Amino acid sequence: VQATALGVRTYDDRISDLSPQARQARVEQARAFLARLERIPVAQLSPADQVNHAILRRSLNEDVEGWR
Description:
Layout: H1 2-5, H2 20-38, H3 47-67
Helix pairs in contact: 2-3
């Protein structure tokens, strides 16, 4: 994105699709992953993995909630 902003078009094919349809698809993927994540028994994870689980869950929730 920075290169494009500076006029370098070499990397334009790597810019994410920001269309509403593409955003909706990413949100659906986040919802599906969040559903899988919620099935993991957190108490059985190591303390470090519990932290990672919580961070990932929050990030996915923010993605889903941000779409609303």
